Structures are given as C-alpha cells and as structure tokens.
What does this fold into?
Amino acid sequence: MALMLEPARVMAKILVVDDEPDALEVLGFNLKNAGYEVTTADDGDAALKKARQQLPDLILLDLMLPEVDGLEVCKLLRRDPATSGIPIIMVTAKAAEIDRVVGLELGADDYVTKPFSPRELILRIRNLLKRRSETEEEKPQTMQFGDLLIDIPRHLVSVAGQRVDLTATEFKLLIVLAQRRGRVQSREALLRDVWEYDNLIDTRTVDTHMRRLREKLGAGAQYLDTVRGVGYRFMEA
It folds into this structure.
C-alpha cells in the first residue's frame, strides 16, 4: 500500500543500499512517493561507487551486504573526505545492541531494525535532514582565516589588510566553501548551491570561477583545495 505523507519540500537525494530486491522496491517506492529522489545499490562495492559519484544527501545502509558489508561501507565512507559528512541511517535485521553500538561508533547517524514502519523511517529521514540543514544555517557573519577576512554583511574580502574585489558569484562561491570548510563540495553541488542551477550543465563553469577566485586571492588561495575527480573544499591552515 502506498505511503501517504506530505511531500518533501526539497527533493533530497537518497541512496538506498540493500541486497534484497523486494526491500529496494518497497523503500524506493515509498521514498519517491514522499518526494525524494532515489538511487539504489545491492552490494557494498556498488554503494561505495555511487556514494562517491553522486554524493547523496542521505544513505540508507543495510548491514548484511555481499562483497563489502554495511559496517565496512560506513567506515570507508566516513574516512573519505568527499562522503564523510553524508548522514547514514543503518537499516538491518540484526537487532542485537552490540550491532547498533558498532554501527553508531563507526559513524552512522541513526539505526533502524527490520521490520520497521515506512512512515517512521521517512520521519527519521526528514528529521535528520532538517537537523543537518539547521546546523549548516548556524553560520558566522564574519570569518577570519589567518590573513584572509570574509565579511558577509559588508560584502568584503581582504588578504593581509588589502581588499580583494570579487564578483557576486566569486564571493558566494568563497562563502559556500568557507562555511562548509573541511567538507568536499562536488562541482554539481556548487552549481546547485552557488549558481542555483537545477539541471546539470558544463561543470567547467565551476573550474573557471575557481581559477579566477584563486588568482584574485593570491596568498589567500592557500585555503582552497582541489580534490581530484570530485570537487573543492576549504581547508584551514
């Protein structure tokens, strides 16, 4: 039976990982019905590959997987800077407390035991995504990194006391990276959050702006790190 819930306001991308075809079908159907974009993987290797390529907003991860089990997948995702910040909900038939503890210690954000209510699971997903969004919104208005100063209200950037003139797009790009410092931002995510493009276009747009931003920042560009094959991140010295 279809799950009737108010559609999600923002179409978050969810990666569902389970080796049972019926479970993938049921979860995918209910999540899409609730307004989410869904991709699936049926083993650990496929889960790792899709997580790194697609950078979903949340991962539903079964423990009992072929190739690479769910605990190992969780551990590898948390070690990878590109995926370390993605919320993970473990979904499994293993109900023992030790399994829940190990999963949470490896970095899972929540733990659901089969059989579970699809309604409850979706509510947990929404709450987790909401908490993540609220945490990201609690950002300072002025940021200082060594000689690099970013003053958001005044639309001012300076390096060693010297003002740097940035375009509106360059300024927004720098703010997004600085506010999410330490976390890799894919080119696709930057196109969505800086340019507000809903459809994927040529990601070289991001590379071009990053090159110009680095040139303008001069010594301040030391904080901008390229993660080959993924995107960019702001790293504090």
Q: What stands out?
A: The helical segments are 21-33, 44-54, 70-79, 97-105, 118-137, 168-179, 187-193, 204-217. The two ends are 53 Å apart (CA to CA). The chain has two domains: 13-137, 142-234.
